[in-house]
Amino acid sequence: MLIIGIAGGSGSGKSTVVKKIVNRLPKSSVSVIYQDAYYKDNGHLTPEERAKINFDHPSAIEFNLLIKHLDMLREGKTIPMPIYSYLTCARAKETIPVEPKEVVIVEGILIMSNPRMRDRMDIKIFVDADPDDRLMRIIKRDIEERGRSFIEVLEHYEKYVKPMHLQFIEPSKRYAEMILPQGGENHVAIDMIVSRIRFAQEAKQMEK
């Protein structure tokens, strides 16, 4: 099994990169798990308390469960990936079964800030983007998907997103073997990543 970590700031285009990589590989050979599914369940909090959750701090994520699930996949076991809602800040009772595949992609803003996560990754990729571009994507996403007003998005960005990016996410770039500027629009880099994955797959097959 090849575990690939794809990190980068909020709004950097990680999801687009993941989709383009997955589309270039045989569907039966790839599983994807998302850091966002592993935010701690805070459904018991009041709306006022939920508004103060810092989703960009490592403490917001249940890394122990995410790491446990990665290890289970490595052992050939299917995992129950949680379903998390930003609107309620709670996990659903249902889960999504994720099967162990030849390639497992882990995507999230903070996955490379955790040493135990990094130890489990065979390839680490950091999706880089200009702050202005990221902010525009964040505004669009948070208004459409998370029910925030324009002013609320800007306040949240200033209070949480920007300082946490500078403290935790940007520094994690140094752990990446590959830095991908321009996100999903960088077709040359995506071609190189897919070629690297295929090469790594072949190398692992030869080791058996």
Please outline what is shown here.
The protein is built from seven helices and seven strands, in the order βαβααβββαβααβα.
Give an overview of the whole structure.
- With 208 residues, the chain is an alpha/beta fold.
- The chain has one domain: Rossmann fold (3-Layer(aba) Sandwich).
- The protein is 42% helix and 21% strand.
- The protein has helices at residues 14-24, 47-50, 63-74, 115-119, 131-145, 150-169, 187-207, and strands spanning 2-8, 30-34, 79-85, 90-98, 103-107, 123-128, 178-181.
- A five-stranded parallel β-sheet has the order 2-5-1-6-7, with helices on one face. The protein has a two-stranded antiparallel sheet with strand order 3-4.
- Helix 1 (14-24) crosses helix 7.
- The longest helix has 21 residues, at 187-207.
- The radius of gyration is 17 Å and the shape is globular.
- The N and C termini lie close together (11 Å).
- The model has no long low-confidence stretch (mean pLDDT 90).
